[in-house]
Amino acid sequence: MAARGLDGIELTVLSEEAHLPYDRVSLGKALTGDVDLTLGDTDFWGTPGVTLRSGAKAVRLDAREHVIHTSDGGRHPYDEIVLATGSDAAQLPFPGAEAAHVYRTLDDVWLLRREIARLTHVLGRRPKVVVIGGGLLGIEAAAGAQELGGDAAVVNRSRWLMNAQLDEGAGQALGRLIAAKGFEVHTGVAPAEVLVDQTGGDDAGTVIGVRMADERVLPADLVVAAVGITPRDELLRLANDDAIAAGLEAPFALGRRGGVVIDASCSTGVDGVWAIGEVANFEGECVGLVAPANTMAEIVADRLHGGEATFPGFDTATKLKLSGVDVASFGDAFAQEPGALEIVYADPARGVYQKIVTTDDARTLLGGIFVGDAAPYQSLRPLLGRELPAEPGAFLSAAGGGEAPETELPDDAILCSCNNVSAGSIRDAVNGCGTCDGAEPVRELPALKACTRAGTQCGSCVPMLKKLLEKELTKAGVTVSKALCEHIELSRQELFDAIRVLQLTSFEDIMARYGKGAGCDICKPTIASILASQHNAYVLDAGRGTLQDTNDRALANMQKDGTYSVVPRIPGGEITPDKLAVIAAVAKKYGLYTKITGGQRIDLFGARLEQLPEIWKELIDAGMESGQAYGKSLRTVKSCVGSTWCRYGVQDSVGMAIKLELRYRGLRSPHKLKLGVSGCARECAEARGKDVGVIATADGWNLYVGGNGGATPAHAQLLAKDLDDETLVKYIDRYFMYYIRTADRLQRTARWQEELDGGLEHVRRVVVEDSLGIAEELEAAMARHVDSYEDEWAATLKDPERLRRFRSFVNAPDAIDESIVHVAERDQVRPATPAEREEIERVSLGATIPVRTRTEEA
User: Fold this and answer.
1) What are the pLDDT digits (tens) for 733-775?
2) How many CA atoms lie within 13 A of 638 on its CB side?
3) DSSP per-residue string spanning 427-465
4) 253-268 mean pLDDT
5) Is residue 347 within 8 Å of residue 170, measured between CB atoms?
6) Could you give the CA distance from residue 130 to residue 101 in angstroms, rounded to a whole number?
7) What is the pTM of this model?
8) Please, are residues 178 and 371 in contact by the beta-carbon 8 Å criterion?
9) 722 vs 27, 400, 763, CA distance in Å?
10) Contact 376/358 with Cβ under 8 angstroms?
11) How far apart (Å, rounded) are the C-alpha atoms in residues 468 and 448?
12) Mind listing the pLDDT tens digit for each residue in 496-544?
C-alpha cells in the first residue's frame, strides 16, 4: 500500500473493525501464532489527505445526497464512494447453529484460540473440534485447531473436500493426505444439528456433538462453521427500501444470491457508487478470493483517474498449503470448455494428483489441478490461455517425466495473479523503466516485490519472480550474486571446494582468506557443517561451538518449553528387548515423555540441559549412541521387516538398512538426510519419500534418489536398477558426497536435483557413469568419514571440559530451571499451556502442585 495518485484527493476509509486493515488471506497464521497481519506500511495512514476511521460501521447510504452515515453518528459526504464491505460467514441452516463459532475475522480467530486453550485446561485433554465445511477456510480452521492442541474433524456435504476448486480425483487425494495427518474426514453426508447439553447442570448450553443426517453423532467440544459466505449488501438493501418508501425506484440492482450488481467498470450504475470484492456481483457471481478483489480495486482506481480499464472476469486460481499439503487449481480446472482434454497423473497411495487441461489439440493450456505436488503450478499459471512449449505430460512432475523446458514468459503473461502483475512489469522494474518512483533499475528481490507488489500476497509466485529477476540481470550483463552471505562472496559450493583443496580446518583461517567481519547466522553454521563433513571432528571443539545452531550446541533438539529431546539411534528400527528396557528405565527415572516416531525410533522429551549427560551416560553404557536428530545430517534409515520374516520379502531389507545407517551415521550435509529400504515392491518403508530409497527386486536393489517430505514433498526418482549390495553402496556414497559438495545451504536433495543443469540425468551420468571423473574421489571422501566416525555424545562424556557446556545456569552449576512446567496427559507429561501456567502460578508457593513435574536427582 503506497500513497500513489492521491494529489488533490481526500481519501477517507471507514472500517467497522477496530484494527488497521489486515490480510485476511493469512488468518490461519494468526490462529496458531502471534503475527502482524497489517497490510502495507502503517505510515500510509499519516499521508496528508488520507483518513482512517476505525470502529466506524457504515449504517446508511444516501445515494441521492451523496452521504454515508456511520454508527458513531458520523455523517460523511462523498463525491465517489467505493463499497468494499466484503462478506459474512454463512450461518448453519439447522438447529444449534448459534452454538457454532465462525472463522472470518481476526476477532473470530482470536476467540477460537482462547476457546481451544480454555477447553484444553478445563477438560484436561485435547478438545474435539468439528469443522463444518470442507472448503479453503474449513480445512485451514481444522489445521489451526489441530496445531493448537485439538483433535479436528472436517465435515463436508460433498463427496470430496474443496469441491468448488477440485474435481473428485483431486478432492479424494486431498482427503487421504489430510486424514494421514490425523484429521477425521467425513464427506458425502450433511450435518443436521449442533447438539448442546440440555441437562440443566453446570454444563448446560455447552456443545456436546454434531448429529449427522444419517443419525450418526460426532462427539464435539467445539464446532466451527465454514460453509461459505454471504455478501454484506445490507447498505444497498436499506438504500433500496428507503427509495421505495419515498415512492422512488430502487437504485441498486442486487443479485439473486446477494451482492450488488456491477458492470465491467465496477460501477453499480448509481452515480458515484462503485463496488469491489465479495460484495460485488459480476455476471451473477460473488467470489471470495483476493486476486479478483485486487483487480477490481485497480479498475476503480484507474476509472477515478479518468481511465477506461475494465474487469476481465474472475480469476479463480488458488495456490495454498493446507496443513502442510500443497493444493493448486486454476483456469478451466473442471474441463468445461467444449472439446477440452484432461491429462491426468494420479497416485492414490501417495495422495498425489496432477491434471492439466488443454484444448482438443493438446497445445493450448486451459487450466489445471495439483494436489500433493503443486510444483508445476508456478510455471504453468502464467501460461494460461497460451500454447505450451512442450507436451502436456512433460509438466506432470509427479509422473517422473523430468523437467519441462524453460519458458520465456511473454510480457503480458500474468506472473502474480493476486496483484495482477505481468512479466512485462517485472522486466520494466528490473531494467529501470519507471515502474517505481524514479527510473533506477531494481536489482534485489525485496525491492522488486515492494516496487511491483508481486509476491506480496500469497507468495506462491516468488520462485518464478526470482527466476525472472535473475534472467533479466543476466541479460543486462549483471552478474547474479551467488554469495553465501554479506560476509562471504563465495557460494557454498565454491567455499566447500576452497576449504577442501586448501585443507583449512578453522573458522578463523577461512574468514581470513575468504570472508570479512565476524560472520553471521548464515555463514557460521554453514562453515561448521562444511568442516564437520570434511574432517568429522568433534563439532564443539576448537571454537566451533560458537558457530553452531542452538540444537547442535546442545547436541539435542530444543523443544517449545526450553527442554530437550533425547533420541538414541535405532538402526533400521531394530532393537533388542534389553535396550528397550534401558530406554524405558531412563524415561521413567527422568520423567520423560516417550514417542515412537515415523523414522522407527523412540524419542524422549522433556530433559533439562544439565540432565542430558546423565541420560546419555546410561544409554551409552547400554550400547546405544546418539541418533543425531539435532543435526543437518543422517537422521534415520527406515525399513520394513524384509525377507527375514515377511512372506513377500525378496531381500533382507533390515540388514541393508542397518548397514547403510551405520555407514552414513554422523554424515554432516547441507540439510537432513533420510533413507528407506523396502524388501519388496509393496514399499512398506515408504522408500520413495526419502532422499535415498532402496527397493528390493528379485535381482537385487533398485536405487531411487531425491525424495523429500516436508513443506514441498517430492517423489524419489529411479537412478539405477537391479544392483548388487556392493554397487548399491558405492552409488549411494557417490550420490551423497556429490550432493554435499555442490548443494546450497539448507537445500534438500529434491530441490538440488531439480536445479542442477540436466537434473536427474546429470546425476545419473556423474554417479553411475562417472562423467566428471571424480567417482574415486567421492568414494574416498566417504571412506574417510566412515573410518573417522565417533559418536558425539560418547566423545562428550569422556571430556570434563566438554561437559561444562551442559548447565542451565553458568554461575550456578547445580541450579534447576524452575520455569519448566509440565502437566500430566495420557499417563505421560507435556509442556503446560499458557493458561495452565497461569493457573499454576496462582497456587501458593507452600501448596502442593500436582501438575508440576520435578525429576528427583539420581
Assistant:
1) 999 999 999 998 888 898 888 878 778 889 999 999 999 999 9
2) 22
3) HHHHTTSSSSSS-PPP-SHHHHHHHH-TTSSS-TTHHHH
4) 93
5) no
6) 10
7) 0.54
8) no
9) 50, 19, 18
10) no
11) 11
12) 888 888 888 888 888 888 888 878 777 888 888 888 888 777 767 666 6
